[in-house]
Amino acid sequence: MNAISRDMLDQLSAKVTEANKDPDVRCIVLTGNGRGFCAGLDLVDVGGGGIGSGGSGSGSNRPKQLFDLRDAPINVMWNIDTPMVCALNGAAAGYGMDLALLCDIRVAAESSKMAAVTAKRNVVPESGGTWLLPRLIGWAKAAELYYRGRVVGAQECLEIGLVNTVVPDDKCLETAMEWAQEIADNAPMAVQTTKRMMRMGLEQSYDTSVDHLMVHLTGMFQSEDFKEGVQSFLEKRKPEFTGR
Q1: Strands, DSSP E only, in 95-215?
Q2: Fewer CB within 10 A of the end CB, N or C, for the chain?
Q3: In the beta sheet, which residues pair with residue 38?
Q4: Cα–Cα distance between 55 and 7 in angstroms, integer?
Q5: Beta partners for 154?
Q6: This prediction's pTM
Q7: Is the separation of the CB atoms in 41 and 83 below 8 Å?
Q8: What is the CA radius of gyration of the chain?
Q9: How do the domains of the chain map onto residue ranges?
């Protein structure tokens, strides 16, 4: 069920960072192997002191120090500008639920579910969930899920705004890839700037956000992709963006 181990944390961060730096990658699709998306942290590994939220070992002989989450998947995924689509192919619990929430878009299989069950394990959604979930579905609904330790099926996830769409199980990854291709067909600078401004806008005033947008827009007007966007519109054809 893709329980998260220390090595998986390290590799996920590395892969996401690599993809974000690659100009040929315009969208990332995250899914789980097999019948589940992610069952959360490997509790056996956690109980043995072999894993920390940042993906670094924390054995019993390790001296106490301030934790550093800068390279953890939860921060890497939040701070990248490349869009991420989650193909939620099965159950997502704990850390796995937070990974799904950190994606920009979630395509859910009919049999998938999200399990906000941290309170049943005497832990908290330490991977960004307490910040993300109230912003996605509102305080009251987030409180209901977390305090009651609820498991939410795909259809209810759609109804409360946790996922964008629900599709048959065998169409989940296919649909996510189709959506990713539609994103990739658009001007990458525009998509990535939009994502960055949306992210930064959560902590900015309206005036500051609009000012930053205008700074970005001024440079984009000088780009080859802007000229291609206008020309393709006039010629009634699909644009071919290069990212320049």
Answers
A1: 105-109, 113-115, 151-153, 165-167
A2: C
A3: 92
A4: 7
A5: none
A6: 0.87
A7: no
A8: 19
A9: 6-184, 188-234
pLDDT above 90 for 17: yes
Under 8 Å between Cβ of 173 and 89: yes
Query: Taking the CA of residue 104 as centre, how many other CA atoms within 13 Å lie in the half-sphere pointing to its CB?
Result: 21
CA atoms within 13 A on the CB side of 38: 23
Distance CA 202, CA 192 (A): 16
Q: What is the pLDDT of residues 31-54, one digit of tens each?
A: 999 889 998 877 665 555 544 444
SS3 content of the chain, % helix, strand, coil (to 5): 50, 10, 40
Q: Does domain 6-184 bear CATH number 3.90.950.10?
A: no
- Which tens digits make up the pLDDT trace of 128-183? 899 999 999 999 999 999 999 999 999 999 999 999 999 999 999 999 999 999 99
Note the pLDDT of residue 69.
74
Can you tell me which residue has the tokens 């974000």?
20
Task: Characterize the bridge pairing of strands 28-31 and 84-88.
Answer: parallel
93, containing H or E segment: strand 91-93
DSSP β-bridge partners for residue 107: 87, 165
The rounded Cα 197 to chain-centroid distance in angstroms is 16
Task: List the one residue out of 52, 54, 85 whose CA is nearest residue 176.
Answer: 85
The owner of tokens 């994103």 is 183
Element (H, E) at 190: helix 188-201
Flag whether pLDDT at 28 surpasses 90. Answer: yes
For residues 3 and 118, what is the distance between their CA atoms, to the nearest angstrom?
Answer: 14
Nearest in space to 97 (alpha carbons), one of 76, 81, 74, 78: 74
Q: Are 45 and 95 in contact (CB under 8 A)?
A: no
